[in-house]
Amino acid sequence: MKVLIIGSGGREHALGWKLDQSPQVDELFFAPGNAGTSFLGTNVLINAMEIDQLVEFAKSEAIDLTVVGPEDPLCAGIVERFEEEGLKIFGPNLECSQFESSKDFTKKFLQRHEIPTAAYNTYTDYDSAVKGLGEVSYPIVIKADGLALGKGVVIVSDYDHGVQTLDEMMNQAQFGEAGATVVIEEFLDGPELSLLCIVSHNRVIPLDLARDYKKAYDGDQGLNTGGVGCFSPVPIPDDVEQSINEINKMIEQGLIEDGFDFTGILFVGFIIQDGKPYVLEFNVRFGDPETEVLMPRLESDLFDILNKAIDDTLIDEDLIWSNDKAVGVILTSIGYPAEYEQGHAIKLPVANPVGTILFHNGTAFDGDNLVNAGGRVLTAVGLGKTQEEARLLAYQLVGRIESDNLTYRTDIAK
């Protein structure tokens, strides 16, 4: 079987790494991939948003399954284009992709089905939004409604900070069209959890829990990023687990009642406040960095799982998890998520320490030299019987990577 993976990050490398273990998979292609994926399969010089070219490639190569990594092509209707050509593809359709392309769309769904979430208001013009700032208690959260690479969320401490944030989003177009509409919602405080679910024609089948780290620096300081570390599983009290299971059922029922036909990944971001889980957000694709710590713990055949989800034959028992703990530490270019330089040489260890895996997020080759080619560059994953063992192994691998332009947080999973 031939598989095409669309995307170029650590998520796509981890998916390819897992799919490569399937006895059913003969060839892997990545479009466009990165330096790391080139060791697993063939990188194809087609961008993730060049949908027509991707369709033609899948047809010419007789691709048996396409897996979409990033959100942009999903929100641009890639699933419909592939299915029109009789090509098998894993990901939600354009209608269901609105759960990521519009935070307002998601909040309305959650409110309509009485799923616990923060109180909110949506604004499409600046003056109304500023007026709304005078009607709330602080702190609050201001979110760009559209796609903003995981960075369009700002915790606002007071009215003046809110006016500045709205001006940057709505007037200065800090996040482009994504910030033309904003969601202002109450601030919830507590630990955050990531729950990726495989959805098969509206049936919600959760993967294991993970927890990522969004802030750039130790102690959760600095700017929001796309995620600079992660660990899985996440121990939670039984009553919280039961509440999350109930919310999953409510989501499933909501999808059915609203007449969706959702097949793909539904990423549910939870926050636990006062022992009660609330839904912070939905995404419609594999999370990054969550995928890098989930795939090494998944004992089932991923190719089999994705096909069963599409074919409506997937059951909960198809997902089997290792008891190992996984910790992922992301090495980033200095300056990320603001301005950073690319093209700096990276020297990797000849052999990774036992119990570790290295995924590439933003790498390329400059001649024979490996260089950084993105803000998030490498993910060092440690696997151990305890979280601390996994953490030590991850940092052991980090310590063997040499570059003058990479940095990382030292407190992941601590």
Task: List the topology elements.
Blueprint: E1 2-7, H1 10-19, E2 27-32, E3 42-43, H2 51-60, E4 65-68, H3 71-75, H4 78-84, E5 89-90, H5 94-101, H6 103-112, E6 120-123, H7 126-133, E7 140-144, E8 153-156, H8 159-171, E9 182-186, E10 192-200, E11 203-212, E12 215-217, E13 221-224, E14 229-232, H9 238-257, E15 264-273, E16 276-283, H10 290-294, H11 302-311, E17 325-333, E18 345-346, E19 356-360, E20 363-366, E21 369-372, E22 376-384, H12 387-398, E23 406-407
Parallel strand pairs: 1-2, 1-4, 2-3, 4-5
Antiparallel strand pairs: 6-9, 7-8, 7-9, 10-11, 10-15, 11-14, 12-13, 14-17, 15-16, 17-22, 17-23, 18-21, 19-22, 20-21
Helix pairs in contact: 7-8
List keywords for this structure.
alpha+beta, 5-stranded parallel β-sheet, 414 residues, 12 helices
